[in-house]
Amino acid sequence: LDLTEMMDKFIPETILSVSKPFLMPIANVINIPNEGVAANGYIETGIIKKGMAVDVVGIRSTRSTTCTQVQ
User: Which end of the chain is more exposed for a tag (fewer CB within 10 A), N or C?
Assistant: First the structure.
């Protein structure tokens, strides 16, 4: 067996729960000049698409915004 086949047998496939609401803990925030603010993290549940409304919930008061890009 080659290495990729061994990895496929050993590493379980990640299953993302898309039926639950979008949840992404923010790991890092980057301020991009002339563009705005980018938040990165790992999506735990749900889906997000460009143009969708999102609520940023955290230490400060909840803030509503729009997703402008997904990478």
Answer: C
